[in-house]
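Progress note, project year one: complex with adenosine-5'-triphosphate.
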Amino acid sequence: MQTNQQPLIQVKNLKKKYAEDGPWVLNDITFDVYENEVLAIIGTSGCGKSTLLKCIAGLECPTEGQVVLNDPNYTLVFQYSALFDSLSVFENVAFALLEPPDDATTFKRLPKAEIAKQVEEKLKMVGLDGIEEKRPNELSGGMQKRVSFARAIMSNPRIILYDEPTSGLDPVAANTLEDYMNVLSRELKAASVVVTHTLSTICRTAHRVILLNEGVIHWSGTPQELLQTDDPIASRFAKAALDTTSAAATGVRV
Ligand SMILES: Nc1ncnc2c1ncn2[C@@H]1O[C@H](COP(=O)(O)OP(=O)(O)OP(=O)(O)O)[C@@H](O)[C@H]1O
Ligand SMILES: [Mg+2]
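Model obtained:
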């Protein structure tokens, strides 16, 4: 994208296998993601999308190659909201600030008013201000996911990694979430990577798409190119995704 700028995420010749004598799940993956850019990762189940995301997030070690994050402030948004049902929305979003880390001696607790201000600001960014006192089980699935977005962005991350953020949502709820992903990307000037099976998410949030197959980047291009490609694997993926997504909800003409 912007070649005069340093990428926020650099994946260099990344290889990953889980067992010494196991297969290469990722076999020489290289790409960069820049500020304000959203990269979608697609591919069939088990092709290594989550593994790639976990390697970027430092939850898995690359077997070979390198991941360079040029900003220490990053966050991972999981497929499931993973909210604490016994806590209020406020407590869920503020969790990292309320809970002292292991090394409590160096932990400086923020004043309550400052925490409240930050929680309100983040809930506003996902269109949910005013629901601080509710419990997660009083919210719809889409709202729960937006609360988990708010929690994930408490530290104003410049790098946001999403694993299937819109799976399991109806097309309208998915569209709402996609709109907020775009807001976050813009407001935080973030570099984002989104693993998704949902065509509307690809078309409405991503600038570039890479298709993983047998451990390598089999195809890459823009969402528009994905819809028009002759590549048999990429076009099969796009058609299958279209079948499971309302074409009207993709926001593009197909
Ligand atoms: N912790 C692990 N230990 C061993 N093998 C693993 C581990 N995690 C993933 N794998 C294997 O690595 C491969 C890729 O898994 P991964 O979860 O990255 O796929 P995925 O593309 O995210 O699939 P899905 O679309 O179903 O979420 C699979 O064969 C899986 O069984
Ligand atoms: Mg996965």
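The radius of gyration is 19 Å.
The beta strands are 9-16, 26-33, 38-42, 64-69, 74-77, 159-163, 191-195, 208-213, 216-221.
No further modelling is planned for this target in the current period.
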